[in-house]
Amino acid sequence: MLNVVTTYGELDVSMVPNGTTGYDDLIRDAEPRTLRAGVVVDVASLADVIRSKEAAGRPKDLVALPELYRLLQAGTSPTPTDEIAAPSQAPTADRQAAETPGKTPQERAARYLRERDR
User: Region labeled Disordered — which residues (predicted)?
Assistant: First the structure.
């Protein structure tokens, strides 16, 4: 993992993110995004980002999950200017759903991926 701090914020670069098998796994559902300079890059899908954050299980990843679940359920993806809410700022229903027995992050992501692949 390469961790870089840029003038635009932190950037983590991983050749094989946790919970994935790498590029071939992620490119399948990647979404093209246009950067400020007009350069188009493929960005991992929100579902794949969630899968990776769940697998990593780092505190900073777990903090982001409730908001990422909300965005996934709403059918939106964060843009570079979107901010991820901390758990105390995340909607109460999302926090409760994330903490409900039988509703683990892995179960929620697995259910989403099963439904997506139908």
Answer: 74-118
Question: Can you give the pTM of this predicted structure?
Answer: 0.61
Average pLDDT over residues 77-84: 52
- State how far the alpha carbon of 54 is from the alpha carbons of 9, 17, 37, in Å: 22, 11, 32
For residues 10 and 115, what is the distance between their CA atoms, to the nearest angstrom? 33
Which of 21-25, 74-78, 87-91 shows the lowest mean pLDDT across its residues? 87-91
**From CA 105, how far away is CA 111, in angstroms rounded?**
10
Q: Quick check: helix, strand or coil at residue 70?
A: helix
